Structure formats: C-alpha cells, structure tokens
Amino acid sequence: MTRRVPVLDLGVSTAALRPELDAAIARVLESGAFINGPDVAAFERELAAYLGVAECVGLNSGTDALVLGLRAFGIGPGDEVIVPTFSFFATAEAVSAVGARPVFADIDARTFNLDPASVAAQLGAATRAIIPVHLYGQSAAMDELLELAARHGLHVLEDAAQALGGAYRGRKLGSLGHAAAISFFPSKNLGAFGDGGVLATNQKPLAELCRELRQHGGKDKYRNERIGYNSRLDTLQAAILRVKLPHLDQAVRARRAAAARYEELLGDLKHVQLPWQDPNASHAFHQYTLRVPADRRDQVQADLAARGIQTMVYYPTPIHRLPVYRAQYSRVTLPVAEAAAGAVLSLPLWPEISRSDQEYVAQALRDLF
Ligand SMILES: *Cc1c(COP(=O)(O)O)cnc(C)c1O
To answer: How many angstroms does the Cα of residue 145 sit away from the middle of ligand 1?
Structure first.
C-alpha cells in the first residue's frame, strides 16, 4: 500500500485543543451573542498585543481586510496601487474592488517577494499605495519598500495573510506597514473554522474607519454615514481564535523546525532551489516552496503524487495573466514572476509533520533528482 502524505493536516492540532475549543464554542452558544460578542473585542486586543500594534479590527476575511484597508486610506477610482503579480489573486482583486487600478510589479527570484526596483519602475502620478505580500511567510524587503513609500508619500498595506508568526528585524510581520491584512482562512498559520480576518494598524483613526466600514458605514446602526460592507468577524470564530492564538508561536517554531529538517535532507540536491531565508527576518514557513526546473515541474508533481505525496503550486499563473486581467495587461511582461509560476512546488508542511513523513518526501525527491 502506498503511503500518503497530505500537503497539510489540521487534524492533529485541532484534536489537541479540542476540550478548550469545545468549551469556547459552548460559551458562545450559551451567550447567544453571535454578532459582535465580547470575544471579538477580546481577540482584537489579544492579537494587537501579540503583533505589537495599537489596533486590530476583526473582519470576515483577509480579502476584506485588504478592501477595507484600501477604502480607509481613501483609495478609489483614478488611483493606482502597486502589487506583486506573484500572489494569491485577492491581493489585486481588492484593488479592483475599490475601483482603483492594480499596477503589477515583478518579484525577486530568490525571495518570491516584491522587487523594490520593479516597484520603483512602476511609480507614477496616480500611485497611492503599495501592497507588499509576505509570500509563503517570508518577509518582503520592508526596509526598501517603506523607504520608497515614505519618499513618494505612499500608503503601505502589508498583505500578511500567510505571514502571521513571522518577523522582520525583530518586529512581527503585520506590524510594519501603515496597516496590514491578516487572514484566518483555515489553512493559514492561525486558522479559524471558517473565514475570518483582521486589519492591524497603529493608526487609531484608520481602525475607527474600518470599524464603521465593516458595519454598513456607521458608528451607529441606523445612522449610516458612508457605503460600507457587512464584514464582521463572527463571535464563534473569535472565540476559536482566542484558544489558538496562545499556541501560534509554538506552531510557527514547529514549522521552522520542519523547514530546517527539509533543508538538512535536501540541501545537497542539484537542480532544486530551497527556500532562501533573509538573515534579518524570521520566516513563518506557511509554505515550504522549492524551485525546480520548469520543464520538469509538472512531472515531478505527478511522480510525487504517484508515491502518495501531495504537493501544491502556489501560484500557477501570475495575476496579470489571469483571465480577468490578461486582456487589459496584455503588454505587461514580468519575467521573474512568469518564470517562478512555472517552477515552484510547495512540499507537505504543517507543525506536527513527522520526521518519517519528511524523510519519505525527501527520499522521493532524491530518487527524481
Ligand atoms: C489567503 C490569502 C488572502 C485572502 O485571505 P482570505 O481570508 O482567504 O480572504 C490574501 N492574500 C494572500 C497572499 C493570501 O494567501
């Protein structure tokens, strides 16, 4: 019988916390406060303390955290926002959703994150903001990007959806920009049992505006002052996240240990580029992503699958080449991102992955290379 190694297994950590989770869920059921219950504000305070920011605003997804963050910055039609083309679609989708225009920049081949030189080349009169993505849990080049933004008076909205638990120069990812979007999609480093997100910021007025936007654009329920959204974090999800947050650092340490084990097992392989780690940062290892020769990537993925090993391609298509954007951006070429999309492969990784699972994955790769 073939062994099976999934790309992610959430069952172990859920089982370990089950009594605490059950108690938290029961408490919400008994209170009946499903919307804006006390767990929401408590979780916002606890996550803000964890990140070292003044405010967290609970929202219904990481995508909405991007959308509401842009709206709170006052970004809309006529404005341009620079985003990496190598990310999950939501990074650009949020820009389009507020009526602004995403301007795609290329990435660094080693980090897979925004290349500050490419960002600088895309700056124009209409540029209002930059969204650096900390892809796979690895910090973007924040020193350069913050400096560029300061010089040109731009907002910086971190897309930290994959990066909770990571750090840059000793500060948590999600606390470095003017605001940050964090996602609690179940597979993320801090996963809810459904959708959820947070907008984190040190700017109190920005947080206040997001609190209005998440609730139909008014401080007061029936005194709507602007067009907003229905985008609250469910009390149930907040209660669940409060149970999980104290275990986040331990889970990220376990991810980093598993990454170190892969490095030990695969470090000498030719033709395979392992994740690069910025010495000034602490990688949150949401994903452990290899670069393999592009002409072999799909075959390698199929060969691993035949041995019961599930892998993922994040992301197979740069955003400017997706059906929704490709006509509009047909003249854009971003060669580093386009090459990366054909060559990346993410290996199984979760905090409790066993050494023997990792050895099995590594042996399979060694047989192929
Ligand atoms: C997951 C993710 C999002 C969106 O978060 P949701 O909570 O699923 O809406 C945005 N950007 C990146 C890079 C992501 O990985």
So the answer is: 21
